Amino acid sequence: MKILQTPPRFYPFIGGVENYAFYLSRELCKRGHAVRIICAQEPWGALDEIVEGIGVMRLRYIGKIANTNITLGLPIALLKADYDLIHTHLPTPWSADISAFISLIKGRPLILTYHNNIVGGGICSCLASAYNHSFLPLLLRLSKKIIVTSKRYLDYSSYLKGYIRKIEVIPVGVDTERFRPEQNKREGSQNILFVGLLDSFHRYKGLDCLIRAVDLLRKKISGVKLTVLGEGSLKENYIKLAESLKLEKHIDFVGAVSQDELVKYYNNCDCLVLPSLSAQQEGFGITLLEAMSCAKPVVTTNITGLADEIARREAGIVVEPYCIEGISQGILKLFGDRYLAQGMGSRGRKLVEEEYSWQKIAQRVEEIYLGAL
Questions:
Q1: What is the CATH number of domain 2-173+357-372?
Q2: What separation, in Å, do the N-terminal and C-terminal C-alpha atoms of the chain show?
Q3: Which has the closest alpha carbon to 304: 195, 199, 204?
Q4: Does residue 184 have a pLDDT over 90?
Q5: pLDDT band at 186 (very low <50, low <70, confident <90, very high)
Q6: 217, 352, 27, 156 alpha-carbon torsion, rounded to 10°
Q7: Rounded to an integer, what distance in angstroms lies between the CA atom of residue 192 and that of residue 205?
Q8: Alpha-carbon gap, residue 199 to 284, rounded angstroms
Q9: What is the sign of the dihedral through the CA atoms of 230, 224, 315 and 177?
Q10: CA 20 to 30 Å from 311, out of 34, 91, 243, 346?
């Protein structure tokens, strides 16, 4: 098959949708398919190239609305491209809607991965509401199949209710070869890890709640340390919050790191925490998978796509959103019982190997493609 994916951005840009498109495309290439990406040129200066067998075309963009790059050249690029089907993604409406209209014109099936709802604050809230009641229903109707990454998201998204017959639940995968346990962690450390973009769009990841939980923890564990990986427009706000709580010695804002460095950070931590706040915006939580693949226990809220599995398989601790005390107590429980933490980490790795390898995910997506054709 000749498959065209239209994520908003692509590697080396790192984000949840971008990682999904990269790993899925790489695995589909291994399965003998020709995969091409058309996306925005972000970061600036990134060139058209072939990345691990994936052909990448990058288009200049004139700006962003919320988290969506506006690439005026996208319609022409899609009209000229040769493909059997398009696989596009929400919550980035520009690339998704243009893909839908061009797929209709060219008579090619459209596959949509619906990662999460489009929401926003302030003026963006009005724009999101207008889109959700106008263009979104048309996009959903034009999609041959809709993939959601968690069954529980069907409960959170009212917009999907009328399209159940064309929806398939296929989770996000993880590269179990790259993200694997390594014996390089210092004994006796008490390190927490947070991984995520630090911009206003990703405020729902709950880093401010985690920082306040660390403030509670340091009164009980003097050596506790939180490492924050990621960049974004709110980074200085988070640093100022940490400084106002006098947490400079307990929180390290590292910034963005490479994939190889990321694996080392996972293996050097004692637990990963993803305290997501919004069920409307948190589609899955891929950092949970990556940490579990490295045999690390996790602490997360009950709205993430993996929460039910984590609780059922005892691979981590699940708490209520916005519950700073609950986050603090969950971390404290892991730090206070090394054997509990190791057991959770081992069960998490086993769960990932059984259910979330990209080989298995790509096979299921391939079946959807064949059915659409």
A1: 3.40.50.2000
A2: 10
A3: 204
A4: no
A5: low
A6: -70
A7: 15
A8: 18
A9: positive
A10: 91
- Taking only the tens place, the pLDDT of each residue in 110-168 is 999 999 888 776 777 788 888 888 999 999 999 999 999 888 778 778 889 889 999 99
Q: Is the pTM of this model over 0.90?
A: no
> Do 2-173+357-372 and 191-355 fold alike per CATH?
yes
Fold of 191-355: Rossmann fold (3.40.50)
Residue in the structure block whose two tokens are 């927490």: 192
Rounded CA separation 9/163 (Å)? 27
What ranges do the domains of the chain cover? 2-173+357-372, 191-355
CA distance 26 to 134: 34
Q: How far apart are CA 3 and CA 359, in angstroms?
A: 17
Entry field: residues in the chain: 373
Minimum mean pLDDT range among 130-144, 164-178, 237-251, 273-287 = 273-287
Per-residue pLDDT band for 38 (boundaries 50, 70, 90) equals: very high
